[in-house]
Design a protein that fits this description.
The complex is a heterodimer of chains A (264) and B (258).
Chain A (H helix, E strand, L loop, with lengths): L1 E10 L2 E11 L4 E5 L6 H8 L7 E6 L2 E2 L5 H8 L2 E4 L11 H12 L4 H14 L15 H12 L6 E5 L7 H17 L3 E6 L2 H7 L2 E6 L2 E6 L1 H5 L4 H8 L15 H6 L5
Parallel strand pairs in A: 3-8, 3-9, 6-7, 7-8
Antiparallel strand pairs in A: 1-2, 1-4, 4-5, 9-10
Chain B lengths: L1 H32 L7 H12 L3 H24 L7 H39 L2 H7 L4 H39 L4 H11 L2 H29 L4 H30 L1
Helix pairs in contact in B: 1-6, 1-8, 2-6, 3-4, 3-6, 4-6, 4-7, 4-8, 4-9, 6-8, 8-9
The chains are: A alpha/beta (264), B mainly alpha (258).
């Protein structure tokens, strides 16, 4: 479905991604994991065509994304959904209108049909009762669920989730996990999850890529990664504070900085 | 020391030029997307309401008080020469030629321009613009163009309202309080204020200011660094840049037209 080859990206000379290869299989839930600030979200934005890679290719359903013209890219995006970290709901529209937005813009369906579709999508995320609320009245978890309903409004072939579990209470995390799985199965979607929540992702992902320092460190099924021999991998999976990834940001010698150079 | 100073100067200049370049490219994108407005009637009406109609209050109140002050000051000056009958002309000319367009543009930047910048900037912070792009909707067409056009259209109308209410304020003080003859007030105004030279040129000014104010407001919002601080800086920049641009352009336009 998605084929990423030799992808490199820099921001102001800083290397974010370097020669990354990733395959995302149709109908599966693929997770991209890694510590904060390793370019996971950047990768999603490159797949969505919002950022241009420095090098390499990104192919979705046979289309080379960086080479697409704007109209073609927009055509492709109608078949992709994306769930943003904050939900990114339009703050001046009600929940109902937020979900109806893509339908109103991209289709010429009669109002009655739009209403039915919106109610179906809201029912799927369990928030049909919240249709009249404004985004400011929703909790963070509810906002994400509405955003999910909006993302599936046009029945996309693929959904990208940007940190779907971050900052949510355990019940909400459970709900979102269930929704991702359920939608993937019932709508025949392909899902890409960007996250650093090891437990949640391992429970629902079919395949995991771990990215750190711009490279794919390891990839495999959750079970394979759990048995990885790499000390870095074990530190990441078990959440150990110190190890191959050091606790301290690189700095000069602590004693020297506190007391000055000896003899000075 | 001098080297650092030169370096800083170079950096500031380059940043400023780059921003201007981005501003111009952005304007081209907006102009290119203008035809999309034909599907966006309701969006435009909504924006004219929030940008124009909601600015009416401050414009009306300011126009009235400026007109009243003009009436008072003008009377005090003219009465020494026994020329207080010309108060209507003096008030109307100051308003139509200068104060109307300029003050409206400055007030507009503070009331509507800053709001536009903050709104668009916050949409960027909360990823609403990105979300729109990912839904295959061009935010320039959907968000920027209606706001830009609404601001551009509202400015000349607000300036006209400002001047009209200002004249009434001058009338109220001059005729109502200070005893200038009502007939003289209006007839002097009618005979000395030329439609083509004064009103039309003032109108041209307000169109130019409207274009600049609208451009700066939407560009600063769209170009804002997507953080809390970035949006606050962008909002400030909108007000300051619009003020400078309007005052500078006012001098140039006055020199050319009058």
């Amino acid at each position: 479905m998605v084929k990423v080859r030799g992808l490199s990206f820099r921001r102001n000379e800083r290397v974010i991604l370097e020669k990354v290869d990733i395959d995302i299989l149709r109908g599966k839930i693929t997770a991209i994991m890694g510590p904060s600030g390793t370019g996971k979200t950047t990768l999603l934005r490159i797949i969505g065509g919002q950022l241009h890679p420095l090098q390499g290719s990104v192919e979705i359903d046979g289309l080379e994304v960086p080479a697409l013209s704007t109209p073609d890219l927009y055509e492709l995006r109608k078949r992709m959904g994306m769930l943003f970290q904050t939900g990114a709901l339009f703050s001046d529209l009600t929940v109902f209108e937020n979900v109806a937005f893509p339908l109103r813009v991209h289709t010429r369906l009669p109002e009655s049909l739009i209403r039915d579709l919106v109610l179906m999508k809201l029912q799927a995320v369990g928030l049909r009762g919240a249709q009249a609320l404004m985004p400011a009245e929703l909790s963070g978890g509810m906002a994400r669920r509405v955003a999910l309903a909006r993302a599936i409004a046009l029945d996309p072939m693929m959904i990208m989730y940007d940190e779907p579990f971050t900052g949510q209470d355990p019940i909400t995390v459970g709900i979102i996990m269930k929704l991702i799985q359920q939608l993937n199965a019932t709508l025949g979607l392909t899902s890409i999850i960007v996250s650093h929540d090891v437990v949640e992702v391992s429970a629902i992902a079919d395949y995991i890529y771990v990215i750190a320092e711009g490279h794919v460190m390891e990839h495999g099924t959750p079970a394979e990664l759990g048995h990885s021999k790499s000390p870095w991998m074990q530190q990441f999976l078990q959440g150990l504070p110190d190890g191959p990834a050091p606790f301290h940001y690189p700095a000069s010698d602590f004693a020297t900085e506190l007391f000055g150079a000896p003899g000075a | 020391m001098i080297a650092t100073l030169l370096q800083d100067f170079g950096r500031v200049t380059l940043t400023a030029i780059a921003r201007m370049g981005r501003g111009n490219l952005f304007m081209l994108r907006v102009l290119h997307a203008l035809p999309s407005l034909r599907f966006g009637g309701p969006l435009l009406v909504q924006q004219i309401y929030s940008v124009g109609v909601l600015s009416l209050q401050i414009i009306a109140v300011s126009g009235l008080s400026v007109g009243m002050v003009l009436g008072l000051q003008g009377y005090n000056m003219l009465v020494d020469f026994g020329a207080e009958q010309s108060l209507g002309q003096a008030t109307a000319l100051s308003l139509v030629r200068e104060l109307g367009p300029v003050l409206t543009a400055l007030l507009f930047a503070g009331r509507a321009g800053s709001a536009l910048t903050a709104e668009i900037g916050l949409m960027k912070v909360t990823e609403q613009l990105s979300a729109m792009e990912m839904m295959a909707v061009d935010p320039v067409k959907r968000i920027i163009v209606p706001r830009f056009v609404a601001a551009f259209l509202s400015m000349p109308m607000l300036a006209a309202i400002f001047s009209a209410i200002g004249v009434l304020g001058g009338y109220f003080v001059g005729v109502g309080l200070l005893g200038v003859d009502s007939g003289a007030f209006w007839s002097q105004m009618q005979s000395k204020v030329n439609f083509g030279e004064d009103i039309l040129n003032g109108f041209v000014k307000s169109i130019v200011f409207g274009l600049v104010a609208a451009w700066i407001a939407v560009f600063e919002g769209y170009d804002a660094v997507p953080t809390t601080e970035g949006v606050s800086r962008a909002t400030t920049r909108t007000v300051v840049e619009t003020a400078f641009a309007v005052l500078g352009l006012d001098f140039i336009l006055t020199a050319v037209m009058f």
